Amino acid sequence: SSSIFAAVEMAPRDPILGLNEAFNADTRTTKVNLGVGVYFTDEGKIPLLGAVKAAEKARLEAAPARGYQPIEGLAAYNNAVATLLFGKDSALITNNQTLTIEALGGTGALKVGADYLKRLLPNATVYISDPSWENHRALFESAGFPVSNYAYYDAATRGVNFEGMLADLRTMPAQSIVVLHACCHNPTGADITADQWKQVVTAIKERNLIAFLDMAYQGFADGIKEDAVALDLFAASGLQFLVSSSFSKSFSLYGERVGALTIVAASKDEASRVLSQVKRVVRTNYSNPPTHGGAVVAAVLSSPELRQQWEDELAGMRVRIREMRSAIVEKLAARGVKQDFSFVLKQRGMFSYTGLTAEQVERMKTEFGVYAVSTGRICVAALNTKNIDYVADAIAAVLK
Ligand code: PLP
């Protein structure tokens, strides 16, 4: 008899992780990987932040027992997350209208949120931006939702097609779920303004939609508080909504899987009932979250010194990315590139949607060993003072 797996087909490779495999197999010493969404130092290393190192050292020395965590994770962590999202004077927090659970990265938060929403609103459609983080569609589809796009990127202006976005919001059926990038839109780097966020909140309220804010890059645009503009406006709106957040990038803790799902309910009583349901989703998936990453983040956020150190280190990452944005624009101009690349300076977060075509990206790979996503997205946070001239050469060459 044949194997039960005999007819199993090979699944398509993940486009970005597949790029990594190709990069790793490339033997050219000059190769550069601009594909992944990871922050590297000027030395091309993933940093271990000083604040994290200090908290880890203290934790190791305390030699804590490795008991189970509560289903929702560490309370100190969850409280710190809510405060980071909504600010320490938030009325939502003092009213106990929010609930936060520690999740396995931003991805885990999105999936727990999606699974919970599927139970709450089994017939809803999920809308994601066009384009969006490549995992959004698959993740919500795997939770059982149909997923559609709303207009977002405008290739002509390299900004947001805000009229189109608003028009799409205004035609969505009531109780549709709208996934919104809270800041540093991935992949385009194009964000909407505070005034436009106000209009989005109004449209969501008028159409009775459910916002699911994805906050994976808090602190990478202008700062912790500044990057929470969308959250502040939703918090003030009186709406119920969901937030997934992640410390993968802002704490450089990618592999520790530290994220959170926060839900804003109408009252304390409602929040505790919703929490009880979210806990059922967690319990039947992975029971309870791992300890280390959350404990480290909680320790950093609750110590004034470590928190300051972290904010300084985060600012350092933000500033270095901005320097790389300016440098690549200058270096392309210096190489006689005619196209106006000043849009790169306006884009926020780790990425730039360069406008390079799939063919040009392919040429950069084969001729130079410079790897980017076929959509033309490059990770600006992977540029450094040593590789940027070579990358500028490669871009200039394929544009000629
Ligand atoms: N959401 C967006 C928009 C992202 O860009 C990412 C990571 O790249 C995530 C969620 C997932 O974050 P995590 O690695 O913490 O799961």
TrEMBL record:
* Key word Transferase present: yes
Q: Give yes or no: UniProt keyword Transit peptide.
A: no
Q: What class of enzyme is it?
A: transferase
Q: Which cofactor does it need?
A: pyridoxal 5'-phosphate
Residue ranges of the Aminotransferase class I/classII large domain?
A: 30-395
EC number(s)? 2.6.1.-
Q: Which InterPro entries match?
A: Aminotransferase_I/II_large, Asp_trans, NHTrfase_class1_PyrdxlP-BS, PyrdxlP-dep_Trfase, PyrdxlP-dep_Trfase_major, PyrdxlP-dep_Trfase_small
The protein's UniProt keywords, in alphabetical order, are:
Aminotransferase, Pyridoxal phosphate, Transferase
Gene3D superfamilies to which the protein is assigned, alphabetical: Aspartate Aminotransferase, domain 1, Type I PLP-dependent aspartate aminotransferase-like (Major domain)
Q: Name one GO molecular function term.
A: transaminase activity
Protein family membership:
Belongs to the class-I pyridoxal-phosphate-dependent aminotransferase family.
What PANTHER family does its record include? AROMATIC-AMINO-ACID AMINOTRANSFERASE (PTHR11879:SF37), ASPARTATE AMINOTRANSFERASE (PTHR11879)
Query: Subunit details for this protein?
Result: Homodimer.
The protein in question is named Aminotransferase
